[in-house]
Amino acid sequence: MNKLSALITELCPNGVEYVPLWSVTIWDKRFNSVDRIKQPTAITYPYLLAADLFAMQQENGDVFLLSTGEQTGWTTEEIAGKYLCTGEVVTMPWGKTRPVADCAKYYRGKFVTADNRIMTSNNTSVLDNKYLYYWFISVGKVVDTFYRGSGIQHPDMAKVLDLQIPLPPLEVQREIVRILDTFTELTAELTAELTAELTAELTARQKQYEYYRDMLLSFGENGGGGETGNNINFFLVAEIADTNIGLATTVTKYKANQGVLLIHNSDIQENEIVLKQHEYITEAFAEKNHKKRLQENDVITVHTGDVGTSAVISKEYAGAIGFTTITSRIRNPQKVLPEYFCHYLNSHRCKAEIASMTISDRSNLNQNCFEKLRIPIPPIDEQRRIVTILDHFSTLCTDLSSGLPAEIEARQKQYEYYRDNLLSFTPAD
């Protein structure tokens, strides 16, 4: 029998009492929706808006910035000024944009707070504050259902304060805190180790992929339309594809909550589209610019920024419009595979040639220069072989990259399962 089980057997032979949260905590304000008898007193903490809170941030401060989200930081007592607080507290966000369990915090010491709702034990010989924190995040999914409103949501505090908290003897609470502190630390260490390991592996695979790609796509030095180097014909982009620049005019007044997707230069990664923002324009405005709408198998290329980086448009993004991007539409896919063309544009050799064409120091690729790029075009069967190999390498990198979040999520679920079991008790008779 472990120590915790022994303590529960010894100290809680008849089960554990559950009490309403309001009966064992003090909050930072009295809530209008809560009966005054449940809140005879409050401890007020001055708070700041998030932007003002992080404007205080200093690298070497010893005052914690108690935000309402995942972001954290530090400041100094001098900068904190009248907003400096001290104590041992547990917080929940007043305005919630993420799950409560991700945003609730425990802190002991000097702090400055954003607009949190702050609770603390009204008697630490009965309720340990760290135990209160672990219990609160264990019921985070229940607390999430108490938030209401459109946009930023706010909680029904009457329901929060009526939650039933298990109240075992203090020795049991502290043993649970010790176990969960240790488990939390180990989970963080393992996650950090796993992240470092997989990141190193991903970097190695990426380098391997790039090396093999550049080797496969090195054909000789001859240029010019139709000239041959190592039995490979070189063609200008203008000879194999029709190109255009995406929308290059202001679209502010044509933006909409839904409609036709805009793909920005920053959304284009090597061989894939990764949307950093979801921006739309009206269907009517898109139709006025229908010649710029993307089709499946078009190759879209960064025009401004990481110039030359390219991806093939999948069925998912067909109909979208690029914003100041370069689009290439292969005239004869039986002679030139769009996927092969894309892989070549992403090669180091081609990127170096593109970089030499950029306008001044703005990393801006001129369409006319782009059309003069020399592209080696091997026989179609060789193109297919190259694409198959490089797609396989790319998949290995993608699988590893997606595997990391999945593994971290699995560890988090393991932790939550263990925590929730530790905080589940047989109710007292």
Structural account:
With 429 residues, this protein is an alpha+beta fold. It has 14 helices and 23 strands. α1 packs antiparallel against α8 (170-216) and α8 (170-216) runs antiparallel to α14. It is elongated and about 85 Å long. The two termini are 24 Å apart. Residues 221-229 have low confidence and may be disordered.
Structural class: alpha+beta
Number of helices: 14
Radius of gyration: 30 Å
Low-confidence stretches: 221-229
Whole-number count of domains:
3
- So what's the CATH class of the largest domain? Alpha Beta
Could you name the CATH topology of the largest domain?
A: Adenine-n6-DNA-methyltransferase TaqI, Chain A, domain 2
CATH architecture type of the largest domain: Alpha-Beta Complex
How do the strands and helices of this protein lay out in sequence?
Layout: H1 3-11, E1 18-20, E2 25-27, H2 50-55, E3 63-66, E4 74-75, H3 77-80, E5 85-93, H4 100-103, E6 105-113, E7 116-121, H5 129-138, H6 140-144, E8 147-148, E9 154-155, H7 157-161, E10 164-166, H8 170-216, E11 227-229, E12 232-236, H9 237-240, E13 241-245, E14 255-256, E15 260-263, E16 268-269, E17 272-273, E18 279-281, H10 283-288, E19 299-301, E20 310-312, E21 321-322, E22 326-330, H11 338-346, H12 348-355, H13 367-371, E23 374-377, H14 380-422
Parallel strand pairs: 3-6, 15-21
Antiparallel strand pairs: 1-10, 2-7, 3-4, 5-6, 5-7, 8-9, 11-12, 12-23, 13-22, 14-18, 15-18, 16-17, 19-20, 19-22
Helix pairs in contact: 1-8, 8-14
